[in-house]
Amino acid sequence: MSEMVARVRIPQTARRGDAVEIRAMITHPMESGFRLDNMGRPIARHIVESFTCTYDGQQVFRATLHPAVSTNPYFVFYLAATHSADLLFTWTDDHGDVARHTAYLTVAD
Amino acid sequence: MSKSIRTDRRDFLVKTAALTGGFAFGIPLPNASAAASVPELTHWIVIRPDELVTIRIARSELGQGTFTGLAMLIAEELDCNWQNVRAEYADVNEHVRRDRVFGSMSTGGSRGIRESQEYVRKGGAAAREMLIAAAAQEWRVPVAECSADSGAITHEGSNRRKTYGKVADAASRLPVPKDPKLKDPKQWKLIGTSPARFDIPDKTTGKQLYAADVRLPGLLHASIAQCPVFGSKLKSADDSKIKSMRGVKKIVRGDDWVAVVADNWWRANQALKQMPVEWEASDNDKVSSESIKQFLRTGIDAKDVPVARKDGDCESAITGAEKIIEAEYYAPYMNHATMEPQNATALVHEDRVEVWVGTQNGETTIAAASEAAGIPLEQVIVHKMHAGGAFGRRGAHQEYTKQAVLIAQTLPGTPVSLQWSREEDMQQGRYRPVALVKQRAGLDADGNWIAWHVRQADQSIWATVRPSDIKNGVDPVNTRSFQDMPYAVPNYTDEYAMRNTHVPPGFWRAVAHTNNPIFRECFIDEVAHAAGRDPYAFRRPLLRNKQKDLAVLDAVAKAVGWGTLAEKGIHRGIAVVDSYGSYTAAAVEIEVKDGTGIDVKRVIVALDPGYVVHLDAVKAQMQGGVLWGLGSAMHEEITIKDGRVVQSNFSDYPVLRLAEAPDKIETIVMPSGGFWGGVGEPPIGAVVPALCNAIFAATGKRIRSMPLKQHGFSYV
Amino acid sequence: MADRHPSAFSRRRTTLRAIAAGVGFLLVRPSVATPDDLAIALREAFGDRPITPGKLKLEVPRLAENGSVVPVAITVESPMTAQDHVKSIHLFAENNPLPRVLSVELGPYNGRARVATRIRIAASQQIRGVAVMSDGSLWSAAVDVEVTVGGCAP
User: Fold this and answer.
1) Less crowded by CB within 10 Å, the N or C end of chain C?
2) Of B628, B608, B611, B634, which Cα lies nearest the Cα of B716?
């Protein structure tokens, strides 16, 4: 199985109180289980099932994915910037594989 | 000599204003409405004060006459003066902004007329009611006392008359009737006739502009090379030596292609040919037609295979049969080989993208361009052009549209015409899938056909288009003619083994109704022969529950004189197929000279499409279907070697020549009414099997694989 | 046949709206639809709780070429305060092999109830978003997406 590679985009700095935009993507085939192989047999499902983001340890985003999410799942969501802290992004797929990515959000007044 | 489509400043301004203003009534191009705001009578119809009736067409003209046919349907219900009618394509951008008001734009599956007819006729009928209502209002008389005919409303009581143009403005302000009354087919005056088609004159004189002819100020030209082994990627393209060649402006790379942009196409293509390009190695580098055939064979030999249809108990019936007939049939990949190679022109502005393309589906084009450019649909303008041949190539797969947009994005503000070379077109097709079929039949002691087993092994197109529609491994498109075979054989099984290769499949005119009818109708002849029966007489009782199939079969048998003595040396073949909602049969008369020279004397095709809109267009489709069938049967095959397509041009992928055409083609158009069947594809189905059956009658040689030339045959 | 959810949108409502807008003539949609599957999925997710149209806005292109990568943005009107916020958003595709697409948990910590992603749409159908608010109320919106690929197949 190929590696899950994460790409995350957060603002360089955020103003306290702003709702900042977070973009996160993970490479993953998101094999739906409905595609057929070359002899017409369904190719086994293999998808990212959950994606979470924590901000200073607290969950601020959680997505439960089903096969209809496109290959290389991509999410844009918002975060109320309160203080500078770590953002931890975690993707878990149905094989139990986990990918993690950290980014530090700098929040100024 | 090509004429330019000049987008001058006034047009540009109108377009821009139309975009920002909400929706555009018609973008001023050849064939588009002159003024920006003219009264609209439903979204289908615009009537000017000078009586000009503009009818908007959502589907595409591919040479099949749909552009004129759809206008006729509307004009019939509108009761306008046909002499005042002109047709134009509904604007795709406007269509999206108005929430898909023009309905489906998909022109394929012989759907253009039959799937639009009800709602476009209702558009015409609604407009007519609005016009009558407006006149009645003006005259202050009851609507019921007014009538409309030939572009004018009359109030008999007061002997007053008004032409449509005079009330169109007022009528356009009235509410659109929700359920307008349609004429009974018996009342049709225009439908069923053959008025001059809108597209033929310009096509005949060379005035017709295709997407390949688009010329815009500052236009650059691009030639492209795509990875010859399907599915692999571009490794490198060394432009160091070619980028300074005369006229070369830019080299653009995609995942699996590289293009050269220059000031004319010749220079672009020359530079491209001289550029060292490397493609990534792939597992598919070793695939050949032979290896593909072996792969198909695993489907024929497999133990358990998805069942498309099962009537009775085939296995027991065959085991207990008195006589067993067995045969294997094969048909190769086929290419569309449209006269106009694939091409698209794109112009990327800061806030919008324009594309010019001959497309079978304006919606596919706008979606493809939008996705390639990464901008919303509302910012994409599609200039839909008549296609120089489509046959299924210009619908689902629009790589050329996306490529043109991607290339044009590297040159914002500069229009780029991407033209695939003929070689590229031949080798980057979306091919009619290859197929291997094994059939077995059982006859009882009395010579009755009691069992029929079909095992198909072929490449599924649907698996790439909509895999979730494939239930239990059965491809609903590829099993046509077998899964729905009409003959009353008590024990019948059709099994489908999907075997997909790396060769990209696509919808070739009539799709599975090109090869499956050959396999089926030729095999029926084999069974008839084994039973010692005449193939026509053998079929008739088996079609006892299928009156429409029987009717077309009887019609061609009668017309060819089946059962009567033919002239010396003349041999006949017959076949019947239903497809796309219509019924067709063909009878072919040939003479074989020197054992291998086939002289096709007569081809008779009968078609029952339910209703006929443009009679001459229907006949033309039947005649064209005959030529399509005969040409493909003799000459056409796409073969694979080293993972790539061997054929590159009409030199090695010949199509039918004029001299090879039959001496006579007779068309029997027999619409039985009560249903709407397709016309573009159905006429093809029965032609080739009828020919093959005639070849057997003439030579004793049973044709089980296409094309005919591989058996040493040629047309003389 | 499963009972339709009492508040589940039916195609009929869209039909009436379209006619009222003066765009009269509707097409027969492809009959691969499984609105019953959607009704079941909605019931499984939300029980019998009423779902009201509103507050949620779905941005999806009206046309998709082949439906494999369709951008979707969901925005819900909400102050996103501790007292009044969106708790979760759910996305459904009535005509996909599985109607559930995605579920997202949110809270006042988001500041803005907007999520964007890319989804697969198997065939032309209605995409529906449902938002669950902190007061337990359910809100929804639906958009029709036409998937254009399908070419010459009859």
Assistant:
1) N
2) B634
Please indicate whether, in this complex, the C-beta atoms of C154 and B579 are within 8 angstroms of each other: yes
**Other CB atoms within 10 Å distance of the CB of residue C2:** 10
Which residues in chain C are closer than 8 Å to B178, comparing Cβ atoms?
19, 24
Residue C101 to residue A70, Cβ atoms within 8 A? no
- Residue B219 predicted with pLDDT over 50: yes
**β pairing state of A13-15 and A48-55:** unpaired
Of B336, B343, B358, the residue nearest B403 (C-alpha): B343
Confidence of residue B290 (pLDDT cuts 50, 70, 90): very high
Strands B582-593 and B597-608: antiparallel
CB contact under 8 A, A39 and B500: yes
Check CB contact under 8 Å for A40 and B468.
no
Interface of B to A at Cβ within 8 Å reads: 299, 306, 460, 463, 467-468, 470, 473, 475, 497-501
Q: Does any CB of chain C come closer than 8 Å to the CB of residue B366?
A: yes
Report CB contact under 8 Å: A39, B499. Answer: yes
Q: Is the pLDDT of residue C6 over 90?
A: no
Nearest to B106 by CA among B114, B522, B98: B114
Q: In whole numbers, what is the pLDDT of chain B averaged over residues?
A: 94
Which of B624, B655, B626 lies closest to B638 in space, CA to CA? Answer: B655
Residues 6+ apart with CB under 8 A from B319: none
Mean pLDDT computed over A49-69:
98
Residue B65, Ramachandran bin (φ over 0: left; ψ between -120 and 50: alpha; else beta): left
pLDDT at B143: 96
Distance CA B266, CA B247 (A): 10
Mean pLDDT of B574-584: 97
Lookup: tokens for C107: 């809270």
Quickly list H helices, B356-484.
362-373, 399-409, 422-427, 462-465
**Helix and strand totals (H; E) in chain A:** 0, 8
Which amino acid is it at B284?
Answer: N
What subunits touch chain C, counting only 3 or more CB pairs under 8 A?
Answer: A, B
Out of C25, C65, C97, closest to residue B368 by CB: C65
* Sign for the pseudo-dihedral over CA of B707, B709, B710, B711: positive
Q: Is some CB atom of chain C closer than 8 A to the CB atom of B512? A: no
- Of B439, B499, B430, B464, give the one whose Cα is nearest residue B291: B499
Chain C hits for B367, CB-CB cut-off 8 Å, are: 61, 63-65, 148
Asked whether the beta carbons of residue C119 and residue A59 sit closer than 8 angstroms, the reply is no
Q: Which of A67, A70, A80 sits opposite C110 (nearest CB)?
A: A80
- ipTM of this complex prediction, to 2 decimal places: 0.95
d(CA B481, CA B427): 29
CA distance C37 to B638: 43
Task: Say whether C102 and A18 touch across the interface (CB within 8 A).
Answer: no
Average pLDDT value for residue range B69-86 = 98
Q: Which of B4-18, B499-513, B527-541, B635-649 has the least mean pLDDT? A: B4-18
Alpha carbons B41 and B666: distance in angstroms, whole number = 41
User: Any CB–CB contact under 8 A between B368 and chain C?
Assistant: yes
For A73-103, write each residue's pLDDT tens digit: 999 999 999 999 999 999 999 999 999 999 9
Question: Whole-angstrom Cα distance, residue B675 to residue B143?
Answer: 32
Cβ pairs A/B, distance under 8 A: 31
Is the pLDDT confidence value at B702 over 90? yes
Using the predicted structure, report yes or no on whether residue B31 has a pLDDT greater than 50: no
Mapped to the 3 state alphabet, what secondary structure does B25-41 carry? Answer: CCCCCCCCCCCCCCCEE
Tell me whether residues B109 and C63 touch, CB distance under 8 A.
no
Rg (CA), chain A: 16
Residue A2: what pLDDT? 64
Cα Rg of chain B (Å, integer): 27
